[in-house]
Design a protein that fits this description.
eight-stranded antiparallel beta sheet; single chain; two-stranded antiparallel ribbon; Alpha-Beta Plaits; about 40% strand
C-alpha cells in the first residue's frame, strides 16, 4: 500500500496550576475555554451541538491540563493568550506554568502497521452499537471484529474533520477489553475500554477518538511496533 499521508498542523498547550487535576476535569477545562466564544472551542453553535469530530480537545495528564488542536483548531490555539488562572467547577486556580508547542505532523494512511494504546479510557459505544455489543457477549461471540469496525469508523470521522480523504482500506488489528464505566453526565454512565490496536493509519500523538474525545477520553499513545 502506498503512503497517502499528508502534513497537518498541531498545537499543544500544557498548563500546570496550583491544584493537581483529574481526568474528569476535562469537561470543566473545556467549559472554561468556551469563554473564547468560538464554536471550535466548545463544540456548540449557539444552543446547538456541532456533531463532528472535535478539532480542539481538553485532557489531563500528570495532574496538568493539556489542550490540543489540529488544523483550524491548531491555528486558534496559537492565539490563546497567557492565562492567569483556570476555573474548575467554579473555583479559580492560579497557573504556575503554561507552555505551547506548534508542530507540523504526518496524518493519514501509511504503508506500515503502527501500534497504539489508549492512555485514557475509550468510549466506543453509542446506544445502537451497545445493544449489538451486549448481544455478541450474550452469544459468547468474538467481539474483536465488531470493535475493529468501530475503530475504523472513529478514524474515518477524525479524517473527515480535518478534510482528509481516505483513499484506501483502513486496516485494524485490536486487543481491547471493557474496563468499566464513567459518568459523562448526571445519571448517565457509558462503558469504557482499554487496550492496544494496530493500524495502517498515522494518528496524532495524544489525540483522542471515540465519544467524548473532546473531554480527554480515548486519548492515544503511539507504541511504535505492532501487536504480537
Amino acid at each position: 500500500m502506498d503512503n497517502h499521508s499528508i502534513k497537518i498542523e498541531k498545537t499543544e498547550i500544557w498548563i500546570t496550576c496550583e491544584r493537581a487535576l483529574q481526568l474528569d476535569d476535562g469537561r470543566a477545562i473545556r467549559g472554561f475555554f468556551g469563554y473564547l466564544n468560538r464554536p471550535e472551542f466548545h463544540g456548540h453553535n449557539g444552543n446547538r451541538l456541532i456533531y463532528k469530530h472535535p478539532l480542539i480537545q481538553y485532557k489531563v495528564f500528570g495532574g496538568s491540563a493539556l489542550v490540543v488542536g489540529l488544523k483550524e483548531g491548531a491555528y486558534l490555539l496559537k492565539a490563546v493568550p497567557r492565562l492567569e488562572y483556570l476555573e474548575i467547577h467554579h473555583q479559580k486556580y492560579s497557573i504556575l506554568k503554561q507552555n505551547i508547542s506548534v508542530n507540523t505532523i504526518p496524518f493519514g494512511l501509511t504503508g506500515n502497521m503502527i501500534s497504539y494504546s489508549f492512555a485514557t479510557p475509550w468510549i466506543g459505544l453509542n446506544e445502537e452499537n451497545y445493544d449489538r455489543y451486549l448481544t455478541l457477549r450474550k452469544r459468547c461471540e468474538d467481539i474483536t471484529p465488531f470493535i475493529e469496525r468501530i475503530l475504523v469508523g472513529n478514524i474515518l470521522s477524525m479524517s473527515k474533520s480535518v478534510g482528509y480523504e481516505v483513499k484506501d482500506r483502513i486496516l485494524i488489528k485490536a486487543n481491547i477489553e471493557g474496563s468499566g464505566t464513567v459518568d459523562v453526565k448526571d445519571g448517565i454512565e457509558l462503558m469504557t475500554f482499554q487496550g492496544i490496536f494496530e493500524t495502517n493509519f498515522l494518528i496524532p500523538e495524544l489525540w483522542g477518538i471515540g465519544k467524548f474525545s473532546s473531554r480527554g477520553y480515548g486519548t492515544i499513545r503511539c507504541n511504535g511496533g505492532g501487536i504480537n
